[in-house]
Amino acid sequence: MTAQHLSDLIRACENSLRDAGIASAALDARLLVGHALGLDRAQLLSQSNRILSESEQAQIAQPIARRARHESVARIIGSREFWSLPFGLNEATLEPRPDSETLVEAALARGGDKNLARSVLDLGTGSGCLLLALLHEWPQATGLGIDAAPRAVEQAGANAAQLGMDSRANFQLGNWFDGITERFDVIISNPPYIAADVIAGLMPEVRDYDPCLALAGGADGLDAYRAIIPRLGAYLNEGGFVCFEVGMGQAPAVEKILARYNFIKIKIYRDLGGIERCLSAYLK
């Protein structure tokens, strides 16, 4: 392995990612090189003439090869920011995305006074990002996150501890309402909602690396809503509300399911791209 300046190696990494069809090759190369070497953006610039050792070049080669296979930067680094908070990821957790912040915004809008003591249930919690973002905004709230994947439950618990919220957030293994006996003031969920015939056409960063359990929503993408909504009344406190994330074009169908099971004051929220991304409602 020949000696290389840091700037030359970054350029080579950019070219490698560009050849692999990565649109954000320049940015991703800098992020991954910086992460591998423990350098921030300013340090990458100030040390551009630094000669890298063979071991440093090897450290960089592995994450660049992973990104060239269309694994996301967040998965390679092992964390993703959501609601301005850091969340660790593993192979069982969906990578949090900005669109899902719409659900947090919807819950905050419906919730009113941020200082109320309230309980929150998060169905299909994944990394715990939705629940923990809400607990961050509601300092007197407590929450329970449920997930069918053991490794997701493990990661969500670690994220709560990292954020200093493990005294207010618990996570347990289960399929939707399995093992739950109490009622909650707020129930939230970002369930799997990708229709079966759409999954193959997803971008490879999602299709090949996000867990299928967190994506596949059945033939029309609505299986999870049909499983969850009829049972909500048994777990929601009087005056409580629910919030769901939905896929593009699914809001009207989910609205009908909610109405069928006596939910009222249904409101639809759009994400930053203008897509109907979330619904909230009260039980009649």
Strand order of the largest sheet: 7-6-5-8-9-11-10
> How does the helix and strand content classify structurally?
alpha/beta
Name the poorly predicted regions. none
Query: Percentage of helical residues?
Result: 25-40%
H-E order? EHHHEHHEEHEHEHEEHHEHEE
Overall number of strands: 11
Instruction: Please state the average pLDDT score.
Output: 94
The fraction of residues in strands falls at: 15-25%
Tell me the distance between the termini. 69 Å
CATH homologous superfamily assignment of the largest domain: Vaccinia Virus protein VP39
Number of structural domains? 2
Radius of gyration, in angstroms, nearest whole number? 21 Å
CATH class of the largest domain: Alpha Beta
Number of helices: 11
CATH architecture of the largest domain: 3-Layer(aba) Sandwich
Largest sheet: 7 strands, mixed
**CATH topology-level fold name of the largest domain:** Rossmann fold
CA-based shape:
elongated
How would you describe this structure to a colleague?
With 284 residues, the protein is of the alpha/beta class. It folds into two domains: 4-69, Helicase, Ruva Protein, domain 3, CATH 1.10.8; 79-283, 3-Layer(aba) Sandwich (Rossmann fold). 37% of the residues lie in helices and 21% in strands. The protein is built from eleven helices and eleven strands. The chain has helices at 6-19, 25-37, 41-46, 54-68, 73-77, 101-111, 129-137, 150-162, 204-207, 223-228, 251-260, and strands at residues 4-5, 51-52, 79-82, 85-88, 119-123, 142-147, 169-173, 184-189, 236-245, 263-270, 276-283. Strands 7-6-5-8-9-11-10 form a seven-stranded mixed beta sheet, with helices on both faces. The protein has a two-stranded antiparallel ribbon with strand order 1-2. Helix 7 (129-137) links the parallel strand 5 (119-123) and strand 6. Helix 1 crosses helix 2 (25-37) and helix 2 crosses helix 4 (54-68). The N and C termini lie far apart (69 Å).
